[in-house]
Amino acid sequence: MPVFYGTEIASPLMLGTALYPSPDVLADAFRRSGAGVATVSLRRESAGGGDFWELIRELDIPVLPNTAGCHSVREAVTTAHMAREVFDTDWIKLEVIGHADTLQPDPFGLVEAARILSEDGFRVFPYTTEDGVLAGKLLDAGCEVLMPWGAPIGTGRGLMNPYGLRTLRAQFPEVPMVVDAGLGLPSHAAQVMEMGFDAVLLNTAVAQAGDPAAMAEGFALALRAGKLAYDADPMEPRDMAQPSTPLMGLAVLE
Amino acid sequence: MKITVNGTVQEVSAQTLDAALAELGYGDARVATALNANFVPAAMRASQSLEAGDQLEILAPKQGG
C-alpha cells in the first residue's frame, strides 16, 4: 500500500468529503470502499457547528486538509497553518490555483508555497501538473509526494495526457505519486495504477454518482485490479495479430 | 467596538481574541483564527488584542476534495 512521508495508508483510494447528498451517504461511501485517506477543508464557521468534524473522526482514517480556493502563496500558507492546528496533522494538500476557470495549478506559486511550508515542518502533497521540470522543483522544495492532475478538477474526463503522466512516472520512479483530480470512472483509476502510480485522489466522481457508495466500491476494485496488473508485468502491445491457439496439430478439413 | 467577523460587521465588547470568541459563541468550538489575514494560533489568542475595524476569520473543518 502507498507510503507517504513514512506513513502507510490502508488503500490507494484517497477520497474527498464534499458534494455528497447526505452525511450518511458520505459515511457509506468511505465504509464500502475502504478509502485510505479523507480530504477535508477549512471554511468559515457559524457558531455552534461541529457535526462534520465528528463525522470525519468516526471514519477513523488519516485526514488530508487542502488549501482549495487559494490563489496566492500567502493565502495557501496561512490556510495550511490554520489547518494544521484544527486537524492536528502536518499533512497538507497544497493547492495554489492559477486560473479560476480551469483551476489549473499556478506552478510558480506552488513551488514557493511548497518551500515555505516544507521549511515550516509541513508534509506537503502538492496538486500539480504532469510537468517534469516543475516536479523536480517541487522535490527540491522539500516535497516527498507529488500529485499530478489527471484532468481539471471536477471534469471527470480521465487522463488527458497519459504520455505526460507516464513520462513523469518514469522520471521519478522512487517518488510516491497520486493522480489527483479529473477522474470520472473506475476504469480511469485502473489505468492510473496500471501505469505504476501509487494512488488516486478523487471526489466528484463518487459524490455525484447516482449511488455514491457503489461507485466508491467500484473505484476501490478498479484500483486493486490496476495494481495487480502493474505488478504482474503486462505484455507489450503489438501491431500484428498472433494466434493464441497453437497452429501445431491443426486438422486439415478442406 | 465593531469588527468584521467572517465577512459580517459585528459589535463586540471583548478586548482580546479569546474573549471575543467566547462572546461570539465559539467557546469550545474546534476552529482556527486569522486576524487581518495573519494566523493566530490558539495559544496566542489570549494575548492577541483587538482593535476596531479588525478583520477576523474563524474557520472550521468542512467538506473538501
UniProtKB/TrEMBL annotation, chain B:
InterPro entries: Beta-grasp_dom_sf, Mopterin_synth/thiamin_S_b, Thi_S, ThiS/MoaD-like
CDD domains: Ubl_ThiS (cd00565)
Name listed for the protein in its UniProt record: Sulfur carrier protein
